[in-house]
Amino acid sequence: MGVQMTIVKVQSQAHVSYAQVQEVARLIPDAVAEIFPGVTANVLKAVNGITGAVTGLIPGAFFCVAEVDGQIAGFLGGVLDGDVFSDRTFARDVLAWVRQSARGSTAYRDMVGAFEQWAVDKGAQEVRGTLLTDASSDRIATAAERYGYQRAGIVIVKKVSP
């Protein structure tokens, strides 16, 4: 017997269905709790942003889902951004998350590929990902380097109110 290949299907932008948005809405609290411990997810706000991306009402917003075996395995949202001092445009991720059960699949990489293609189509010169310090950030950065990403700078954060 050979190795069984997991099939990942990525749907982005207008190809994301209402049922997929509903499923992502159920996953958002877990994703936010894992990525941003102590932060309470605002599902309504998230769904508003997702809806803006998939309907095209927010042209500078991107959203995709990855399915493994017909189930939502993860999602990625991003936006176009630019420098205030030049005409350079870049795409940056807002939130990307993959269920624990799908982390051995290509779900994350496939979603990033869809995001990169969207960025190219929108005229972005680069794609940026933000990794906050946690147990997985170094592993994710090392993996991203294999796909052409470079570590660039340091993000500093100061909490100024509760």
UniProtKB/TrEMBL annotation:
GO molecular function (one): acyltransferase activity, transferring groups other than amino-acyl groups
Cross-referenced InterPro entries: Acyl_CoA_acyltransferase, GNAT_dom
All copies of domain N-acetyltransferase, residue ranges: 5-162
Full protein name: N-acetyltransferase domain-containing protein
